[in-house]
Amino acid sequence: MTPIIYSEEFAKHFTGEAHPERAERIVATFNALRKTSWADKIQWLEPSSMETPLVLSLIHEVHIPEYVQAVEEFANNNGQHADNDIPTNIQVTEIGGFRIVDGQYQYFDADVSVCRDSYNVALLAVRAWMDGVDLAISNGRPAFVLARPPGHHALSNRGMGFCLFGNAAIAANYALKQSEINRVGILDWDIHHGNGTQALVENNPDIAFCSLHEMQCYPNTGYPSEKGKYDNVLNIPILAGSKLARYEQAFETEVLPFFTKFQPDLLIVSAGYDANLADPLSEVCLQPSDYGKLTQYCLQLTNKIVFGLEGGYAVKELTESVVATIEQLNM
Question: Which of 221, 323, 318, 305 is nearest to 275 (CA)?
Answer without folding.
Answer: 318
